[in-house]
Amino acid sequence: MAETMTSTTSTPVKSMALAKAINESLRTALDTDPKVLIMGEDVGKLGGVFRVTDGLQKDFGESRVIDTPLAESGIVGTAIGLALRGYRPVVEIQFDGFVFPAYDQIVTQLAKMHARSLGKVKMPVVVRIPYGGGIGAVEHHSESPEALFAHVAGLKVVSPSNASDAYWMMQQAIQSDDPVIFFEPKRRYWDKGEVNTEAIPGPLHKAQVVREGTDLTLAAYGPMVKLCKEVADVAAEEGRSLEILDLRSVSPLDFDSIQTSVEKTRRLVVVHEAPVFFGSGAEIAARITERCFYHLEAPVLRVGGYHAPYPPARLEEEYLPGLDRVLDAVDRALAY
């Protein structure tokens, strides 16, 4: 589990799946702040297609947990209007590939309102997006479009990799006065972890070292952190010590933590599901090359998806980064 918090009580830590942690976080927000609303397709009576919002409408009513029409642009546009009236809406985009009808609202209105009003208008809107592959879904259900949003000034873009971060990062996203695009790694929804709901969380955009190492840094976020842990286990059997850095936030990026790790290990491999071409790994590679030029003993390498439309489910294991592809990058970096 990422070291993102310090316990302040003796309350027993709860074990829960990542999806349940988000549910508990949303429940806490609804219970403590009457201005928090949840909106989206099937989030109410059904409890969401992944049951992330299960039971919330039953407990908080249809005026707080709102089933919307199938209209992503309308969902986000309504959330913007509610934010202007002082509410803190949390909207769900049912799947990653469905966000594009709302892209105009997000990048031309949601992201710009704070600057357009010279700081007078806040936009406390959270856009929840289940993203990524690995579940055998059909077209438009397995994409990783985080770089498209990270490129847009005015948006915060985050993605938890474990249940504890899912709980606390959602709390922090809801409390933010800036819009947050909250990417939820759907293939990790059922992964369990320990959550202390009475802890003090670390900063939302701070990367965390989840495994110490000396020979090379693996930087990842969301669904790829677990894969990097598996890679580090295999590498350890071969006598190689890999450090794993959970970035947690894609925008802003915690370059200071990446730099600190790379100055120690002198090698960096960035791993994400999204295509390598113009992906977040490209910005990390460029910035770390500038910052750590005299420390690096190998070029920064990237492992990710291919520059191609996401394939049918039967081929997704060939498309997605796996153990062998990351280990190959590690071997190439260490060979310099």
UniProtKB/TrEMBL annotation:
SUPFAM superfamilies referenced in this protein's UniProt entry, alphabetically: Thiamin diphosphate-binding fold (THDP-binding), TK C-terminal domain-like
Lineage: Bacteria, Bacillati, Actinomycetota, Actinomycetes, Kitasatosporales
Protein name: 3-methyl-2-oxobutanoate dehydrogenase (2-methylpropanoyl-transferring)
Keyword Nucleotide-binding listed: no
Transmembrane intervals: none
Keywords from the UniProt entry: Oxidoreductase
Enzyme Commission numbers on file: 1.2.4.4
Entry cofactors: thiamine diphosphate
Domain Transketolase-like pyrimidine-binding intervals: 16-191
